[in-house]
Amino acid sequence: MYMFKNRNSNYYSRIYLPKKLAVSGCPAEVRFSLRTKSRSTAIDRSLLILQKARTLIARAMKESDLDAKTFISSLKEELNLIACNSFLSEGILPAHNQPVEKQQDRKVHTNPSREDLVTRFIDFKQAEGVKPKNLGLMRSRIQSLIQATDKPFEEITAREASGFLKKLYEKRLSAKTVRDYLAAIKQFYNWLILMEYARANPFGLVKAKSDGRLASEQRRKWRRQELGRLFSHDNFTGVIGSNDSHLNYQKKLEDYWIPHLLLFTGARVSEICQLSTKDVVKLGDIWCISINENDGKSIKSRASIRHVPLHNKLLSLGFLDYVNQRAETYQKKLFDIKPYGQNNCWSEQFGKRFAKVLTQQGFHGKDRPTLHGLRHTFIDTAQSEGIAENEIADIVGHTKQTMTYGRYGKRVSLVRLQLAVNRIEFKVFARND
């Protein structure tokens, strides 16, 4: 690691990462602002940054399956927390013979109410491009802190922050949910410091316990018997009556096709619910669905934009007949699903309908399988079939994690993706294609 000055004479620390981490997709170096123009102060701060960075890098070197994106994000967050705590969080003080850059003497604005500060922060995150659904979650998590204490934000201590964490655990929230709460509040405090509404982040050193399970174990997939029970529901076996109204008829078709599409494409619920009729396309000899952001559709990331070959099972069930019927009646949308609530959530409306089906089929409790779990089931089944990770990523819209595939790899051809998709079988369905 060494220091350098930018054109504004501010000092930066440049941290070189081991070559072993580069193989996992990490960059060669990470740069971090020391937030000072004083060389002596920069040296002291760089020592603190180096100490924390070396600890995190050593831990990463021991991981056999490192997620580069998560590691770099975690590294930057940890270093930023040190900066937000005036570079004093580990007890290293500025040089005794240099004037201290007194963060504590900075003017702190106290006029706005707590609710007003939260609103300003949410407006700031909205300007950054954060999606409405995530803004709503962020607001509710920060509001939980307001409900827990009457103190102004700048007066909350680290001990009280730790007590807030204890209250979250007492609510029997999952480890991931607790981490999400802390992440939102830490972001909020970093903004408060930036805008001079607070001097330090009391949650800077508050850590949530890890889940203790592998990421793959945290995903609830459908078991074979559960799929059999689900697809024995009248939605999938009953005959649509001739006396159905148009609205009821269309709902029954949606109840039939959306779960099938989720299971046989691995797509996200919102991606399927947003599909336009023209998004079902034939490229060469391969029928696909096009996941895109045209016509105001929203996507999770750039990797989400893709073409997914239709499984032979979907074709044999008559999916193209349904698509043609929508096109012939001049329907722009493939399904009559509308975004729901303030967050314009595309999956919530159909998710509530599907929840009733789960209850009717005897699925109860917090651990019951979910609509989104059909996507996980597709991914896990693809992995068990030995399908290459980069092919699965192109099918389901994941960002490729390794440097080789992520930076240099092109998209897999549709022919190969079609072969991969059709290798996936669910034994609850008879092969009639």
TrEMBL record:
Keywords assigned: DNA integration, DNA recombination, DNA-binding
Record carries keyword DNA-binding: yes
Coiled-coil annotated spans: none
GO terms classed as biological process: DNA integration; DNA recombination
Superkingdom of this protein's organism: Bacteria
Keyword set includes 4Fe-4S: no
One Pfam family here: DUF6538
Core-binding (CB) domain ranges (all copies): 112-193
Domain Tyr recombinase: 217-422
Sample GO molecular function, one term: DNA binding
InterPro entries: CB (IPR044068), DNA_brk_join_enz (IPR011010), DUF6538 (IPR046668), Integrase-like_cat_sf (IPR013762), Integrase_catalytic (IPR002104), Integrase_recombinase_N (IPR010998), Integrase_SAM-like_N (IPR004107), Tyrosine_recombinase_XerCD (IPR050090)
CDD domains named among the record's database cross-references: INT_C_like_1
Membership in a protein family: Belongs to the 'phage' integrase family.
Protein name per Swiss-Prot or TrEMBL: Integrase
Gene source species: Vibrio ishigakensis
